[in-house]
Amino acid sequence: MARGGRYQNRIELLQGTLDMLILRTLQWGPRHGHGIGLAIRAGSEDALCVDHGSLYPALHRLREQGWIAAEWRLTENKQRARYYRLTPAGKKQLAAERSRWERLVAAIAGVMRPA
Amino acid sequence: MKWLRRRRRTAEEELDDEIRFHLAEEARLRGESGASPDQAAASARRDFGNVTLVTELTRAAWGGRALDDLAQDLRFAWRLLKRSPGFTAVAVATLALAIGATTALFTVVDDVLLRPLPFPESERLVMVWERSPLGNPTNSVNVQNYLDWRARNRSFRDIALVQPVPMNLVGPAGAEQVRGLLVTGEFFDVLGVPPLVGRVFRRGDDVDGAPRTVVLGYGVWQRFYGGSPDVVGRKVAVNANDCEIVGVMPPGFALPGQPAEVFAAYQIDPAQAPRSGRSASTVARLRPGVTVRAAQAEMSAIAAQTERERPENNTRWGANVVPLREQAIGEVRSGLLVLFAAVVCVLLIACANIASLLIMRASARSREMTVRLALGAGRWRLVQQLVVESVLLAALGGGLGLLLARTGVPAIIAMFPSNFPLPRAEEIRVDRAALGWTAAVSLGAGLFFGLLPGLQAGRRGLADALRSGARVVSAGRRLRTVLVVAEVTLAVVLVVAAGLLIRSLAHLHAVDPGFRAERVLTLRMFILPTKYSDPDRRVAVLQQMLERVRQLPGVTSAGAIHFLPLSGANSGTDFHRLDRPAPPPGQGEATAVSVIMPGYFRTMGIPLRAGRDLDERDGLRSQRVAVVNEAFVRRIFPGEEPLGKRIFVGWGYGGGPRVEPGFEIVGVVGNVRHDGLHTEPTPTVFLSHAQQPGYMASLVVRTAGDPLALASAVRAEMARVDPEQGVLTVGTMQGLLADSIARPRLQAVLVGAFAALALVMACVGLYGVLAYSVEQRRREMGVRVAIGASPRALLGMVVGEGVRLTATGLLLGLAGALVATRFLVSLLYGVGPTDPLVFLGVAAVLLIVAAAASYVPARQAMRVDPVVVLRDE
Predict the structure, then answer these.
(1) Is the confidence at residue B658, as pLDDT, over 60?
(2) Which among B7, B10, B15, B25 is the top mutation candidate for probing chain A, defined by the most A β-carbons within 10 Å of its own β-carbon?
(3) Greatest alpha-carbon span in chain B
(4) Hey, is B822 helix, strand or coil?
(5) Helices and strands: H and E segment counts in chain B
(6) Count of the separate structural domains present in chain A
(7) Closest C-alpha to B266, from B188, B199, B354
(8) Which residues does B361 contact at the CB level (< 8 Å), separation at least 6?
(9) How far from each other are the two terminal CA atoms of chain A, in whole angstroms?
(10) How far does the CA of residue B63 sit from the closest CA of chain A (Å)?
(11) ipTM tops the 0.85 cut
């Protein structure tokens, strides 16, 4: 399929990591949805591409959880956009996710270490 | 609710805004990197993907969304159903019929077969019967044997003896006879049901010489005493004996299979208990921890002892322990299960039909579905909507079906014959269990036929669907073909079963009962033993009644017999030829015996083949005489002259000395199928009541007009002879004849109706598939006609397809029927379960019906105009 060819350099996001990435992106300050997508892409040097069909549902999910809050603001280009920011609960969640992630990475690295 | 909706609307608007912003931002970025604004916007959109789908997915993440969808789907489904009333009517009616029928029968099956009997720890209740040398496993019990069982067994907490007897009561409307039960003191303890008023019997009530006591059933208490609680202690004349009423039982109390309105203490003198003859039954409660098998082993051992101790009465007799529940429902079970299986088949066919209808609709709506998918509707969302549609259909059908069941249950019960051993028939009604069943069936049906086309619609790839456009969706067709073949298969099994049952019924109708049943009035009674203990008086009372009845205008003749043919009761006795050496005690041959009054044969239209009828010459003090039937002659006197031969007949001797000169055979009559039309006539000896007066008597009265119109006049003449002598039941021989085949008739009628329903549904299904196939293949047909196919060839093609589908179903169905009809064997008469006539007939009928169902769509195919079709493209 054409789609597969175009994104072959990109990595499918691991289940459950998108939420962590979003929270992490918001650590540097509020961003709108589009900006979050860009930041994840840029931060991963284009290796990770966020599917919009996942991004917006994820944002709403996180908002329901109370980990992020949203407000409408104007961008530098004077356009109305919905900005998301981390809540205190979100910060805690990010810390928890991060340590979980590090344990996972360490565990996987241990398994994958050359013999 | 309103603010919720407003909130949702703002939320949706905000989401739209957010995505609009996303696209704009993306386009702006791309514009900065050099693309033209149009290109930038387009590529932004392309990369974003399906906007609607993203919105849908995001919305799905909101809470409460599912409920909202459901309400929307329900409204949409309701509008759709209203828009195609024809489809809706057919589907709902099909379901209502099927669900109604299943619910009605489920109610009956649940009440009769599934629920425990209404006694505490009813699983420990058993009946103990004697096993006769001829192999009857549930023969009545001898009183002395019962006493031995009671004294020796260790398996039962208690064992009670029960003897059904008619009981004569004198009530407000004169003498009346009701069904009564003589029971020993253990009876109520065994069943464990407390009385409503007063007390039940205790040990001591059943000792010979104790004051006579009775316990009333609820019905008699209401009819005779208006339900007054102070009946306890009152005296009542039962069979002209003064008895004290000690208690009243609650409504519905009965020993299954032995309905009774009055219970009297069975007073036994152990020293004088009858050591021959068997007429009672027993009911017992197992001790905790004792199994039926263990009890059976012990009872067999005890029976072996009694056989050694009293060989003259017990040679080759055994004991048989039967759980009460099995006893109560044993005969009914197979018939009801067959009916239930039939009805489940109908339900399955109905579901298949509706699934097929829905698939057809789904195919017709494939464009709509494709468009909705392309617009971003979630796949499961579509499936959900289809399921909601079909569950709505099923709910409508189920609701109507429940109404049908409510009227159907009484109708089914009304079809049961009066002698149908249906336990607790009067309690049966559509209740919560049946409601649950209806709900489960409707919901199951809804999910079943909603999921099939739903998954079908969901599975097809979008690109695929768009590519195929409006052309044939072959997967749907294949599924519908499978469904139709399955329908035909089930229908064939049902029609074969119905065919077998109907042929059985036809055989039964064609059977000659041996008597002429029309215009014969019957009055059953029990001659009062207290007033007529003198044999001469017992003879006289019946003679006087018959003489008076014969004088009535409209009466052609009258007679009497102790047990009417087809009434379910018969007597047997041992006998031997007196011109041969007597066999050892207890090893003589057995024969049926009937005690009659002169005029019986004439009244019943039983032909006299040789010799003479019994008449006034044969009295208590003259030579004992007997008339035998042809079956008796064939078996005992093959090739010999029976007239003038003497036989010994055990009947009436009560085990006393067997004296010469026995009975002289004076006549031979034609055979009567006494035990049922499905049984062969048994060898029978007819004795005269005037020489062997007993206490059971049924008057038979042949009338010129409607027999029941004379009933009260006949009753009045009998009362003139003795006003205290009541009558148990008044009926007609035709009624008995009808009752005797009511069960096969019920089975044939119901299974036949279900089979017809199944056949019609299968045909509708077949028609639907073919009509749709013709519709889808119009283009192909047009091309065929254009290149020279004749309309006849098209006709052949469509009918051929129909017949091919049917033939597949037919073969599968016939194979299935070969297996399934084995379960019918016990219900069949005169046909085998693989009757070739029925199987071939069903095959022929099915092919003809299938051809007819194919003809209409085939005609449409013939009318295809190639010009029109090709221009359409």
Answers:
(1) no
(2) B25
(3) 136
(4) helix
(5) 26, 21
(6) 1
(7) B188
(8) B87, B453
(9) 37
(10) 9
(11) no
Q: Do B57 and A56 touch (CB under 8 A)?
A: yes
Residues of B in Cβ contact (< 8 Å) with A64: 61-63
Nearest CA to B466 out of B368, B380, B357 is that of B368
Domain for residue A3, yes or no?
no
For B708, half-sphere exposure in the C-beta direction (CA atoms, 13 angstrom radius) is 7
Please write the tens of the pLDDT for every residue from B574-597.
888 888 888 876 677 888 999 999
Of A61, A72, A82, the CB nearest to B61: A61
B259 three-state secondary structure: coil
Q: What is the DSSP letter of B139?
A: B
Q: In chain B, what are the domain boundaries?
A: 2-83, 140-316, 330-510+742-872, 528-724
Residues 6 or more apart whose Cβ sits within 8 Å of residue B680: B631, B673
Strand A68-74 to strand A80-86: parallel, antiparallel, or no bridges (unpaired)? antiparallel
DSSP run (H or E) holding B321: strand B318-323
- Residue in this structure with the two tokens 């709509």, named with its chain if needed: B368
- The token duo for B234 is 């009152």
| Cα distance between residue B652 and residue A71, in whole Å | 107
Given a cut of 60, whether residue B473 has pLDDT beyond it is no
Supply φ then ψ for residue B132, to 5 degrees: -80, 155
The Cα of A114 is separated from the nearest Cα of chain B by a number of Å equal to 39
Return residues 23-82 of A near B (CB < 8 Å).
32-34, 51-53, 56-57, 60-61, 64, 72, 75, 77, 79-82
Residue A40, domain extent: 10-112
CATH number at residue A76: 1.10.10.10
Total residue length of chain A: 115
**Burial classification of residue B447, based on how many CB atoms lie within 10 Å of its CB (0-12 exposed, 13-18 middle, 19 or more buried):** middle
**CA atoms of B674 and B664, how far apart (whole Å):** 23
Residues in chain B: 873
Position of tokens 């000659």?
B512
Cβ distance of B63 and A81 shorter than 8 Å: no
* Average confidence (pLDDT) over B604-629: 91
The span from the CA of B420 to the CA of B428, in Å, is 14
pTM beyond cutoff 0.95: no
Contact B49/A at CB under 8 A: yes
On whether residue A5 sits in a domain, the answer given is: no
Q: What are phi and psi of B648, to 5 degrees?
A: -90, 135
Neighbour tally for B100: CB within 10 Å: 24
- Residues of chain B with Cβ-Cβ distance to A74 below 8 Å are none
pLDDT digits (tens, 9 = 90+) for B731-770: 999 989 988 888 788 888 888 888 988 888 888 888 877 8
Does some domain include residue A4? no
A2 in a structural domain? no
pLDDT digits (tens, 9 = 90+) for A8-32: 455 556 656 888 888 888 888 888 8
